[in-house]
Amino acid sequence: xxIFLNQDSKVIVQGMTGSEGMKHTTRMLASGTAVxxxxxxxxxxxxxxxxxxxxxxxxxxxxxxxxxxDLGLYEGGTTRFVHFDKPGISFIFCNIHAEMSAVVIxxxxxxYAISNARGEITFPEVPPGxxxxxxxxxxxxxxxxxAAQREVTLTSADSSLGNFSLAETDALSAHKNKYGRDYDxxxxxxxxxxxx
Length: 196
Hints:
By secondary structure, this protein is mainly beta. The chain has a single domain (2-174), classed as Cupredoxins -  blue copper proteins (Immunoglobulin-like, Sandwich). The protein has two helices and ten strands. Strands 2-8-7-4-5 form a five-stranded mixed β-sheet. A hairpin with a 6-residue loop joins strand 4 and strand 5.
């Protein structure tokens, strides 16, 4: 059993933060992507929809450790779905728009939480027992996340699991397209990019 958490607090699952997080989240929401703070925890076995609310094409894909998929090009006003059938972390991108990204975490446990604005989380009704605490943040290197993993034994008297402190990197923002190449520079005259 695992509990997925995150940095900056006692125990956290945290998504995109700060001005970069707001910029990308705003773009994703405007495109119709279902975003929960940049990180979308789901019970393994659930599906996630990827609606395209834009007047141009998108191509959502993930080629990483979680669910591997490529939805291909699909036009505005349509929706594609992905079934996340096994636990894992899926880093998701658009093959056309490099600035669009999300994370879906498929969990094998009902015990997870996303931090509030102060970086605090609450796990309601977690029974006493032994748990593997795992922290996640999209901008933290996987080896740092593994090093932050802890096994804890909870009793009914426990109210804090301590703090997690992690250093962010820009690894996620430097991703390649689905062919392993750099993205083409945006052409301001291209109909694929919205103009104000």
